[in-house]
Fold this protein.
Amino acid sequence: MKQFISFVIKETRHILRDKRTMLILFGMPVVMMLLFGFAISTDVRNVRTVIVLSSVDHQTQQKVEALGANEYFDILYKVNTPAEAELLIRRQKADIAIVFGQDFASKRSDIQVITDGADPNMAQMYANYATQILQQSKMNNPISAKLLFNPQMRSCYNFVPGIMGMLMMLICAMMTSISIVREKERGTMEVLLVSPIRPLMIIIAKAVPYLMLAFLILAAILLISKFILLVPIAGSLFWIVVVSGIYIMVALSLGLLISTVAKTQLVALLASAMMLMLPSILLSGMMFPVESMPVILQYVSAIMPPRYYISAMRKLLIMGVGIDKVMHEVCVLSLMAVVLLSAALLKFNKRLD
Amino acid sequence: MTLKYLIQKEFLQIRRNAFIPRLIFIFPIMIMCVMPWVMNMEIKNIVVDVVDNDHSTLSSQLVHRIEASDYFIFHGEGPSYAQAMNDVESSKADIILEIPPHFERDMKRGEHPKVLIAANAVNGTKGNMGNAYLSSIVSQHMAEAAMSGGSIKTTAESAVSVLYLYNKNLNYKLFMIPSLMAILVMLMCGFLPALNIVGEKESGTIEAINVTPVRKVDFILAKLIPYWLIALVVMTVCFVLAWLVYGITSAGNLGLVYLLSMLLAFIFSGFGLVISNYNDTMQQAVFVMWFMVVCLMLLSGLFTPVRSMPHWAYLTTYVNPMHYFIDAVRTVFVRGGDFGCIAHQVLALSVIAVLMNAWAVYSYRKNS
C-alpha cells in the first residue's frame, strides 16, 4: 500500500511540474465554460429591424411602438418600399423587415414579415417573435404556453452538460493515455516495471491522480455554472457526482485502452483527438441535436459514451428529475465502463507477457 | 529568381510527403460529404404528447391535425398532465398539449377555453420553435372551428405572413456550407504552414536555409505561396461537391467568393507562420494554434449569430477575420450580393492580411 501511495505521489508531481499541462487542465475548462456560457448563444436579441411604411397612421404607429418597446428588436431604419428593405438585409445592415400594406388602418391589409433565411433557425425565431408581438393586440389569446425548465431560453442551459461531457473525456482519456505513452516513449516504463510493485498497480496509480483531477474539475465546472453562469443545479448533487463518476471511469478506461495500443505520444494524441474528441463534440448532441441527423449517424452516435452522459446530465442538472428517469443512461454507461475496463486490463496483461 | 527555386523546393517536399497530398484532397471531400449532415441544428422530429381532457369531435380533430403534421412526431395520448410530464422528464416527449375539459362546448358557446402548451426548453431553440409551431396549428384549428360555428364575429384582424428571403425552404445546409469552407481554409492554411516551419526547426534543416543569402521575405513567401494554391484547390473541391452532392450553387459571383477565400488564406497562412516563429516544438505549435482556432471559430458567427453575444464578446468580432469572412461569404454565396455589399469586409480582411504577413516576416529571425 505504501508503495502504491508513493507511486500516486510521483504521478501527481509529474502533473504539477508540467506548466503547460496544468494550463491546459485548468485553463481550458474555464475558457470553454465562459465562451460557451456567455459568448455562444442563440438568444434572440438586438435584432436589427427595418420598418417599411408608405403612410403613417395611428394603427401602424401603435404596432411600431410595440415592436420598438420590445427588448428584442432595435428599429434602425424606416423605408418606403420593400425593395429598399431587401437591399438593407442583403448588405447585412438589417435582419428583419416588417412591411405594412398601403393604407394599413383603413383597408385592413396584411403585415408581411421578411427575414433573412441565410440562418434558418434564427430566421424562424425572429419571425416567431415578431409575429407574436404584432398579434398581441388580439384579445384573449386562447393558448397559454409554458416553457419548462428554461423559461428564459438561455442557451447555456443546453451547453453546460455538453461541455462537462467533452472536458471529462479530454482530461481523463487524452491526458492519461499521453502520460502512459510518454513513459513508454522515454523508456522510463521499463524502470517502473522492474520495481517491486505489481504492473497493474502501476497503471492504477497512474490513473488515480487523473481521477482526482477529474472530480476537481467537475467541482470547478459546477461552481462556475452555478455562480457565474447562473445555471441552477436542479437535481440531487449526490447522483450528479455518482453518474459523473461512472462516466469518468469510462473515460479513464478508454485512455488506458488507447495507451496499450499507441506507441508514441503523437499517435496517442491523434488517436484520442480523432476517436474521442471529434465524435464527442460532433456526434454526442452537445451542439448538434442527434435526432436531426441521418439514421446511420444516429447509430454511430449510439456508441458514443458522451451522448449518454450529456443526456443524463441534462436531466439531472437542468431538469432536476429523479435518478429513476436516467436509469437507461446509467445502465448503458455502466455497461460501457465494465466492458472497456476489462478490455483495457486484458490487453495490458497480454502486453506484459 | 531565388523565389522560384524555393517554391519548387516546397512543392517537392509537399509532393514527397506521403500524407499531405492525400490530406489536401481527401480531407475536404470527407468534411463536405459528412459534416453538413452532422452539423445540423435544424429542429425536426419534435415528439408531442397530447392530454385530451375533452374527448370531443373538435379535440380529436385537433389531435389528428397534429398527427398529420410532418413537423411533429405524435407520441401518444396521455391520461393526465402528470403522466405526460413523466414522459417529458424521461425524454420520451418534448412537448405537451393539454386540451381542457368542455373544450368543444365552450368553443360553441363562444367562450375562450385555454389550451395549454408546455415545451421542454432545455434546448431553448427547440422549445421555442416547437411551441410556436404547435401554437399556430392550435390557433388555426380554433379559428376555423369558430368560423364554421359562426359563434364568434370574425374580428377583422390583419394576418401576419412571413417571407424567408434567400433560403425559402430554410435549408440548413445552405447555412452550414459557407461555414465549412471557412473551416477548411482555416485548417489547411493555418495548421500546415505552422507544422511545416516547426518541422524544419525540429529536424534542423532550417539552419541550412538560415546560412544561405536568401532574404527573409523570399523565404516566407516561398513557404506561403504553395498553401495559397492549396486553398484554391480546396475551395474548388468545395464548390464542386456542394453542387454535386447538395445541389447548392453560389447565388452571387463565384469570383468574389474566391477573392474572399484567398484573403482568408493569406491571413491564416501568415498566422500559422507567426505561431511557428514563436514555438519550437510541433506539440506546442499545435496546442496554441488549436486554442486560437477554436476561439476564432466560436466567436465569429459560423454557428451562432454574433448579435446574440454579450457586448464584450461582440467587440472581439471587430478584429476577428473569420467574422468578416463569414459575413461576406454568406452575403455573396447565399444572398447574392455584389462587390458593393462586401466592400467593407474585403477592406477589413485586406488590412488584417497585410498586418499578419508583415508580422510573419518581421518575427522570423535568422539568428537563434
In short: Residues 172-203 of chain B form the longest helix (32 residues). The first strand of chain B starts at residue 46 and ends at 52. Chain B is about 65% helix and 10% strand. The radius of gyration of chain B is 28 Å.
